[in-house]
Amino acid sequence: AHLDRIAAVEPAVHAFLHVSGEDALATAADVDARRARGEELHALAGVPIAVKDVVVTQGVPTTAGSRILEGWRPPYDATLVARIKAAGLPILGKTNMDEFAMGSSTEHSAYGDTHNPWDLDRIPGGSGGGSAAAVAAFEAPLAIGTDTGGSIRQPAAVTGTVGVKPTYGSVSRYGLIALASSLDQAGPCTRTVLDSALLHALVGGHDPLDSTSIPEPLPDVVGAARRGADGDLSGVRVGVVRELQGEGYQAGVLARFEESLTLLREAGAEVVEVSCPHFGYALEAYYLILPAEASSNLAKFDGMRFGLRVEPEDGPVTAERVMAATRGRGFGDEVKRRIILGTYALSAGYYDAYYGSAQKVRTLIQRDFAAAFAQADVLVSPTAPTTAFRLGEKLDDPLAMYLNDVATIPVNLAGVPGLSLPAGLSDDGLPVGFQVIAPAKADDRLYRVGAALE
Ligand code: GLN
Asked: Which of 17, 78, 227, 371 has the most CB atoms around it within 10 Å of its CB?
C-alpha cells in the first residue's frame, strides 16, 4: 500500500531519491513467514520505513543529496540500518535532503526540490525535508532523519509531524555521512509520539563502533510515551525559554505556542519562565563550529575514493588537479561556502579568534541549559519561528535561511535531546511545531510531555 501511495504522490512531492520496492516487499514477505511460524517479532516488524540519504545502506545508492556521491553504493550498513533490518522493517527507500545536510529547506539538494504536502509551493523544511514529507504525505509511517542544527525538528514542525533529536551519543553515528561530528545525531520522524519512542528504542543504545556512543542503556522512552498518554503531568515543571520567543516569531506561531502552554497547565504541569542569556549567540557559534568540522569531514571527497571523479579538461592529470576538478563540479554552492568558511575559521592565526571563541560560547550555552534545568524538568519553545515559507523565497539569502534554526541549534550545541510535535495550524493554515527539550540522557521526559500534549 505504501509503494502504491509513493507511486501516486511522488510526482508532486518528490520525497524520495531512491525507492527500493523489491527489497521492501521481500522483507515484508519474510516477516509474514516468520510470523506464520509463530516467531517472536519486534513491535515494529513489518512496518515500512524511509531512511534519509545521508545514512549508508549496503548496496543501495547513497548520495547525501550531492553529485559528488552519485552512483556510490556503500559496502556496509549503518548500525541503525542494521538494527532496522534485524527487526524486520521493510526499507522503502532513501529520502531527499539538502546536500550533506546543509540547509533548512531541502532546496540545496543536487537532485531537485521536495514539496511540502500541505502546500506544494512551499518548502518541507530541511535538511531532512524528504523524510518529513514522506511521513506527512502518508508515503511512509516512519522515517529516519539526522539533526545537526534542527534538520529533524524543523521539517517536523513545518510538515505537522513528530521529530526527535535524541541525546548526543544516544543513537549510533556509525554509517552516517558526517556533517559536524560533535553535533550530528540521527533520530525518528513519525506521525505520533509513541511511534517515535518505538523507533528511538529500536535504533538507539550503545554501539561499540561509535566511540561517542553512550555505554549505558537508553531510558525507557516507550514506557514514558505510554505513561504520558494518560495526560497527567502533575509534578512536572516546564520552563518557557524567554529568549526563544517574541521578535522574529510569526504571530500565529506564538499563538499556538501559548495554547500549548495552556494545555500543559491543564494537564497539571507547573509552567515557569527561565532565561538562557547566551542563546542569542548560538547561531553565530554554530556557523563557525559546523563549517569547521564540515570542512574537515568533507576532505575525504577527493575523486579517488567514492562516487564522482572528474579529470581536468586540459593539462596533466595529477592527483591534486583531479581533486580540484571533482570538488569544483561535485559540490554545490552552499557546501563550497561552508568549506571556505570552515577552512578560514581553522586556519593558523584565526583559530583562536573564531573556532576557539565559538567553543567558549558553546560552553556558556551548556551552562545556560544546566541553570535552566535546575529550575525545570523540561524546557519548551516554538520549534521554528515561522511556518513553511515558499520555495525559492530564501534561497539567495543564506542568513535568512540560517535564522530558521534559532530555536533548534542551542539543543545541538549542548548535546541535549529535543522533540517537535504538531501544535495546530497557524493563521495561514500551515502547521506549527512545539519543541520540548530535556537534559542529556533524560530523553524519556520528551516522550512523556509530548504524549500528554498529543
Ligand atoms: N539548517 C541547519 C544547517 O543548515 C541544520 C542542518 C542539520 O541539522 N543537518 O546547518
From this structure: 78
Query: Residue 199: which H helix or E strand, with range?
Result: helix 193-203
pTM over 0.90: yes
127: annotated active-site residue: yes
Q: What is the pLDDT, as a whole number, of residue 305?
A: 87
Element (H, E) at 164: strand 162-165
Q: Which of 96, 97, 99, 104 best tests ligand 1's pocket when mutated (most atoms within 8 Å of CB)?
A: 104
The answer to whether 59 and 18 are in contact (CB under 8 A) is no
Active-site annotation holds for 381: no
**Rounded-to-integer distance, Cα 199 and Cα 170, Å:** 12
| Residue 313 CB neighbour total at 10 angstroms | 7
Determine which one of 20, 66, 104, 127 is catalytic.
127
- Angle (CA) 274-193-369 rounded to 5° is 25
Residues framing ligand 1 (Cβ under 6 A): 101-104, 127, 147-151, 179, 290, 405
52 as an active site residue: the answer is: yes
Q: What is the CA radius of gyration of the chain?
A: 21
User: From the alpha carbon of 128, which atom of ligand 1 is closest?
Assistant: 9
Q: Which is the CATH superfamily of the domain at 2-230+417-453?
A: Amidase signature (AS) domain (3.90.1300.10)
**Contact between 431 and 143 (Cβ < 8 Å):** no
What's the average model confidence in pLDDT over 206-222?
A: 98
Q: Identify the band that residue 33 occupies on the pLDDT scale cut at 50, 70 and 90.
A: very high
Nearest to 64 by CA among 163, 153, 176, 174: 176
pLDDT of 452 > 90? The answer is yes
State the ipTM, two decimals. Answer: 0.97
By most ligand atoms within 8 Å of CB, the mutation choice from 151, 337, 397, 399 for ligand 1 is: 151
Domains in the chain: boundaries: 2-230+417-453
